[in-house]
Amino acid sequence: MKNTFCVLLLAALLPASGQGLLEPFGTRYQLLAALAPSFSNASVIDHNPAALGSITRFNASVQGERRFLLKELSAYALQAALPLANATAAAGLAVAGHPGWQERSLRAAYARRLGARASLGIGAQWLQAGNGTYGRASALTASAGFRWELAPSVHAGLALSNPARVRFGKGSEERLPATYSLGVGWQHEAQWMLALALLQRDGHPPCVVAGAEYVFARALRARCGIDTGAPSAWIGLGTIAAAMRIDVTVTLHRELGATPLLQLTYPAQ
């Protein structure tokens, strides 16, 4: 119990975990997928709402992780995207924590395609954290993003999350941090992609997230990448079963160890 408490305390103090449990530690590869249209699915709603513009048929994703192999730091999320006329709407639900501390999130986003080369997206997120003993605090944040094609198969993306730095709870002086990202992705159809993003979060130095994903065959893919902010690295494999894509990714933190993540995507891409 003492060792678990120490790890939990250390996790709360590190930049990678200071984001809160509702931004799962093992999903950095999804930030990069938002820079490559052929690799984007409903989960990009959490990283850049503009990336939803490349989704042209219904898509749903469910994922769960156990951060640093601790049950108390488990997080689960469900996202769905629905194409509309020249646009895509999406919604997401996330829960994390344990009975002593719980976090919940509801998210909605809308992306509009601006011709064949660009898309613009906006989003809103309702957050709640706390417990039944000491009460709960909540906040409503906004996000926006833009993605455009720089050259054939090369895309750039810009995303802003909570630029107003809203207060967390009524009468609270605590403000939720703003997050900014700028990145570029290079893809070859749906066979491989390389991407790099610069991520800036209030109170932390800028960090670089870079990675690659390669599809060996329709039923087998692999990914890897690094995040200099944690610091951490990830490696993952994906396959197809029952019309769904199944992805398993393990993120390794230099000091706190492994974070496994399982993601199911329907329909399989």
Please specify the SSE layout and strand pairing.
Layout: H1 2-13, H2 28-33, E1 59-66, E2 74-84, E3 87-98, E4 101-113, E5 118-131, E6 135-151, E7 154-161, E8 179-188, E9 192-201, E10 207-217, E11 220-227, E12 232-241, E13 244-253, E14 257-266
Antiparallel strand pairs: 1-2, 1-14, 2-3, 3-4, 4-5, 5-6, 6-7, 7-8, 8-9, 9-10, 10-11, 11-12, 12-13, 13-14
Distance between the termini: 43 Å
Per CATH, the superfamily is: Outer membrane protein transport protein (OMPP1/FadL/TodX)
Q: How confident overall, as mean pLDDT?
A: 90
Q: What is the radius of gyration?
A: 18 Å
Describe the structure using short key phrases.
about 270 residues, mainly beta, Porin, 14-stranded antiparallel beta barrel, about 5% helix
What would you say this structure looks like, in words?
The protein has 269 residues and is mainly beta. The protein has a single domain, classed as Outer membrane protein transport protein (OMPP1/FadL/TodX) (Porin, Beta Barrel), CATH 2.40.160. The protein is 7% helix and 57% strand. The chain contains two helices and 14 strands. It has a 14-stranded antiparallel beta barrel. It is globular, with a radius of gyration of 18 Å. It starts with a helix and ends with a strand. The N terminus is likely disordered.
